């Protein structure tokens, strides 16, 4: 299974699009993936910072990230069958240093665990889970009082069929990418949230994972489709406070 850094990881691939689904060929290196993400993210929707006449108020935000910038979100998709989404801050590595102005880079991984069998059990003994689509939308929380209302926006968006992001020898089917294979789940090493409105005090990432779940191990006729939703609120720091 794919874990989180610092342990070495085999990069599968990753892609990001401002809107819609992006289909790309496989990447082989972290630098290629970073360039693909960051280049395409330049097209994401942005909102200008509030004018100097706007008054702001400090607002609390219930961030799920830990102090060192990581979080593990878990969903039970069947009895004893867990889909796990791990997210970590990459640069800066502490989300306390994430501000509206700087680039905020994070990575994430999707894996599955069948707790009914030993982790080292062969695949035919495990209930298979296929991932057919990964989507992320976002929403910002702003503290400006008295400023003109900005339109609803999603400053960070991601949508991809994982089968287009991995080498051709990776186990997959018409249901999607197989998560519980010896090759591991889906890994996106890094992608970047760019500049946010100046009064942003939080951003909420909304993950949607479309999966196919096997009801009985090694039984093709027992698959059922479902969508796993995870919400990740992340606090954004005020650089003027940090500098004091």
Automatic annotation (TrEMBL):
The organism's place on the tree of life at top rank: Bacteria
Protein name: Fructose 1,6-bisphosphatase
Species: Microbacterium dextranolyticum
């Amino acid at each position: 299974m794919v874990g989180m850094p610092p342990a070495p990881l085999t990069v599968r691939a990753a892609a990001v699009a401002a809107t819609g689904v992006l289909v790309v060929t496989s990447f082989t290196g972290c630098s290629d993936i970073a360039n693909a993400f960051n280049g395409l993210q330049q097209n994401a929707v942005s909102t200008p910072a509030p004018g100097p006449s706007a008054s702001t108020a400090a607002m609390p935000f219930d961030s799920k990230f830990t102090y060192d910038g990581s979080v593990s979100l878990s969903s039970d998709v069947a009895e004893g069958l867990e889909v796990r989404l791990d997210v970590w801050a990459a640069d800066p590595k502490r989300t306390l240093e994430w501000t509206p102005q700087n680039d905020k880079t994070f990575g994430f991984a999707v894996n599955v665990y069948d707790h009914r069998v030993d982790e080292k059990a062969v695949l035919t003994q495990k209930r298979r889970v296929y991932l057919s689509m990964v989507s992320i939308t976002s929403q910002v929380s702003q503290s400006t009082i008295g400023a003109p209302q900005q339109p609803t926006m999603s400053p960070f968006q991601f949508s991809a069929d994982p089968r287009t992001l991995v080498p051709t020898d990776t186990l997959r089917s018409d249901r999607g990418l197989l998560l519980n294979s010896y090759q591991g789940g889906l890994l996106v090493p890094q992608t970047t949230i760019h500049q946010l409105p100046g009064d942003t005090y939080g951003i909420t990432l909304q993950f949607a994972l479309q999966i196919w779940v096997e009801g009985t191990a090694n039984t093709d006729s027992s698959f059922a489709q479902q969508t796993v939703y995870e919400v990740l609120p992340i606090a954004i720091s005020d650089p003027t406070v940090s500098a004091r």
